[in-house]
Amino acid sequence: MRETTTRASEKRSKQGSPSRPTLKTVAEAAGIAVTTVSRALAGDPLISITTRERVREIAGALGYVPDRAAQRLKTGRTNVIGVLLDPHEEILGFGTSLLYGVTKALKGTPYHLIVMPNFLDESNIEAVEHIIRNNLADGLIFTRTETLDPRVRLLSEKDFPFVSHGRTEFATEHPFVDYDNYAFAYEAARRLIAKGRRKLTIILPPRRLTFSQHMLHGFMTAVREAGIPFELADGINHDSKAGVVRDYFRHRLDRPDPPDAIICPGEVSAMAAITGLADGGWSLGSEYDIVAKQTSQLLTDIQPGVDTIYEDLTEAGEHLAKLLLQRISGADVNILQKILT
């Protein structure tokens, strides 16, 4: 096949063909019809897998890139998936892991990604409006859902395909993939109680985010069942900088009755809490214990004494992309909802 590709490249060079390869260029190199190449690149299931893979390999070797404008005029689709992604520091590897999962699910399909930032303190509804208005994508994935998320409302009203990473409290159903944060907080609290700790605390996400309510509910259910004292970490949250979290726990030791059991929503907050308490003379596993949500191996590599509960963000990314492709194909929203544990 490489010889075929090379001969086609040499032929174009001798004939003075344009430098940008076309479907015809790929067809000549593959020795098949242009229509077959087009269908193979579009992932037509009527074309054999062997042919599809061969055509994609030849197209990649030649540097063929589909003309998005022409595709949009012909089919009304862009073959683009948009992702609104957070520049999030608390969850290690969040963007990388999520995008890796999305990319894995889109492999072998005609879809490509565009990634735009979603800022921590806002829903970035302007980016959503821009995508819809200019027909920049066939579907959208976004994270950090709010209880009454304006992006969900707008996309639902416009009937624009989307899947959110997280749930909302809208009465109208919509596609989502979410992690069971109720179960995480409940299990984390139960583990700390089982260790014999006397007073629990939890760092929550910002209150406007839906999973903050899920975590709070799980935590409160566990402490009320056990009848154990608790407090909520007041003045810090999931988005707080590491230095702020560190100082909070250091200074908490200067006030009466500090908690000796901490639930952290991510690895950064756990490491910050450990540092702050160490500065105050407390040792992990002795004066206190932590259960943290883990999305990488960093925390356990640095602090093997920390108890963790794993959230697989790559798996979440795969499900987000798969559900979005189903939604684009017209699947009902009621079957496009998944909660991961």
Helix content: 40-55%
Name the overall outline.
elongated
The secondary-structure class comes to alpha/beta
* Number of discrete helical segments: 14
Q: Which stretches are low in confidence, meaning pLDDT under 50 for 5 or more residues running?
A: 1-17
Query: Could you give the count of β-strands?
Result: 11
Kindly, what is the distance between the CA atoms of the first and last residues, rounded to a whole number of angstroms? 45 Å
**Radius of gyration, CA atoms, in whole angstroms:** 25 Å
Query: What's the SSE pattern?
Result: HHHHHEHEHEHEEHEHEHEHEHEHE
- Mean pLDDT over the residues: 87
Strand order in space, largest sheet: 2-1-3-4-5-11
- Strand-residue proportion: 5-15%
Largest sheet, in brief, is: 6 strands, parallel
Protein name: Substrate-binding domain-containing protein
Domain HTH lacI-type: 21-75
Keywords: DNA-binding, Plasmid, Transcription, Transcription regulation
InterPro entries: HTH_LacI (IPR000843), Lambda_DNA-bd_dom_sf (IPR010982), Peripla_BP/Lac1_sug-bd_dom (IPR001761), Peripla_BP_I (IPR028082)
Give the secondary structure arrangement, pairings included.
Layout (H helix, E strand, L loop, with lengths): L1 H14 L7 H8 L3 H8 L7 H14 L5 H8 L4 E6 L8 H13 L5 E6 L7 H9 L5 E5 L6 H8 L4 E4 L10 E4 L1 H14 L5 E3 L7 H17 L3 E3 L9 H11 L8 E4 L2 H13 L9 E6 L3 H5 L4 E4 L2 H16 L8 E4 L1
Parallel strand pairs: 1-2, 1-3, 3-4, 4-5, 5-11, 6-7, 6-8, 8-9, 9-10
Helix pairs in contact: 1-2, 2-3, 2-4, 3-4, 6-14, 7-8, 9-10, 11-12
